[in-house]
Each structure stands twice: as C-alpha cells, then as structure tokens.
Amino acid sequence: MTRVAAVDCGTNSIRLLISEVQADGKIRDIVRTMEIVRLGQGVDATGEFAPEALVRTRVALEGYVKQMKFEKVQHVRMVATSATRDAKNQDEFFEMTAQLLSQIESGAKAEVITGEEEALLSFKGAVADLRSERGPYCVIDLGGGSTEFVVGTIDGDILGAHSAQMGCVRLTERIMRTDPPTDSEIEIAEDYVEERMQEVEKIVPISSAKTFVGCAGTFTTLSALAQGLESYDPDAIHGSELRFDALRVLTRQLMGKPSSTRALNPVIHPGRADVIGGGSVAVEGIIKMIERNSDASSFFISEKDILDGIVAGIAADL
C-alpha cells in the first residue's frame, strides 16, 4: 500500500487530498481538507501576488506538509491554477512550494497547469461515482478565477473542454465591489458572465451532455444551503441534485445579502461569504446557457473533483 497526496491551489482556496493506493489498485481517501487563503487577492488589478496572500498560502501548505509526514505520504503532486497563471511574481510562489514539498518527495513543487488540463482532471474526478447511463456528462468546476467546462463520457472520451475566465473571486473583485452588490453591479456581472457563456457555447458541445455536474466550493455550498444542513456534510452533499428553478431563488437571495449576514450560516465558510454572491451570478449565467442548449433542469453535485483526478493519475503511474 502506498500513500499519495494531491494539492490544488486556486484563486480562493488551497486543498489537500491524501489517499491510500491499495495493492489491488483501489483508492481509499485518508484526509480531505480545505483552507481559504485567497492567493488571487488583487491579482486582477496588480498582476502579481500580494505579500500577505503568499504568507497565508505558505502557512496553509506548511500545515499540509505536516499532515503528509504524519500519514507517511510517499508521492505528492501540487497543481496551481487560475491565479498563478496570471501572476508576474509566480517564481516566488514556486520556490516556496519546492522548499516545502521536497520534504515529502525529492524535486516536488507546484506546477501550473493549463485550463484545459484542469478541466480534464476535474472531469475524471467528478464522474468517478456516476452511473454510465447518465452520460455524456458536462462537468462544471466553478473556481475563484476561472470556470472549467468539459463534456465527455464515463470512459474518458472527451468531446470538448474550455476554461472560462470567470469565477467567484474575479467577479467580486472586478465588478461586484459593494457589499451587498448594487443592482447595477449585478447587471454588469451578468453581462460579463453571458459573454463567457457565449464563448463556452462556441467551443464545448453542451447539447451533447445529458447530465450536468457541478463541483467545487460554490456548488457544494449551494447544495448545503438548499438542503438546510446545520453543518457542512460532504456525504450529504455528494451526489445531491439541485433543480434550476429552486436554485435561482437561492442565488438571488445570496446576492442581496451582505457578507456579514451570509457568514452567519454555518455551512458557508467565512472565507467564502464575501464571494459567494459572485459565484451565484456565475451559476445563474451557467443555468441560462444550459437551458439554451439542453432539456436538463438540474445539477448533480460532486464533492470529487481535480484532487481525485490528480490522485488517480499518481496511482496509475505507481
């Protein structure tokens, strides 16, 4: 048995999955955790990482390395996505990750992956527990700086993929700056999302998808809210179904609330309270795009995503 780790560092959060690859090839989760570090703070405006954002990320990664050592992890892969692709001072970030991750595996450090590779890894993880008759699938990974769309089959036959430059942090920092956002800000954000959705429609065969799968923090938090959970419960969230009509009511409510009120709900992470309004605008725009191209009326929510895809890739190479 071999223990491996995957780390995903995005615009808003850094996440860790430690898994055990058993002799028969089966994979068992050991640790799955997340911290909001807002690495992408201000990147849209300045083009580089803020010093305090790098410190927050380093502290979180140090904690993850301690967990890896405790769990006797032998192999690790860390990917960095939207914010890192855009930052001019990314070398400072890479040097920090190399210093920490080399304690687990010689030569390990964060690597920037393209939006397309991010989409493919997310797809592989997100559909792992879905039944083949529900396919083809469209997996939608809504992050802080970008949103990945990928259509494919359970066997991994990818029909189309695209990384759209929109996410909950990007929309909040660029457009929805008032707390709560004004009607004008919401309208401008909706127009921006609609432009991105038109790009998706040109590149990805949305009409080929039978089932739409939402993953990452905005979607999973919306599921927890829709179910009225008293605490964030991954088991209750994974595999849940959110109907578009009911979801629109929820997203509209979130947009109208200040972040301080959102943060009072125990299922909304304090670091997500100020950006879930932006995420809600993105979700509404995605729904409109799906309805133009499909008869679907709901999302299925997956707690599995890019981390699971990374672990599967490590396991395949053992």
Automatic annotation (TrEMBL):
CDD domains: ASKHA_NBD_MtPPX2-like. Residues 23-293 form the Ppx/GppA phosphatase N-terminal domain. InterPro entries: ATPase_NBD (IPR043129), GppA/Ppx_hydrolase (IPR050273), Ppx_GppA_N (IPR003695). Pfam families: Ppx-GppA (PF02541). It comes from the Bacteria. SUPFAM superfamilies: Actin-like ATPase domain. PANTHER family: EXOPOLYPHOSPHATASE (PTHR30005), EXOPOLYPHOSPHATASE 2 (PTHR30005:SF13). This is Ppx/GppA phosphatase family protein. It comes from Corynebacterium simulans.
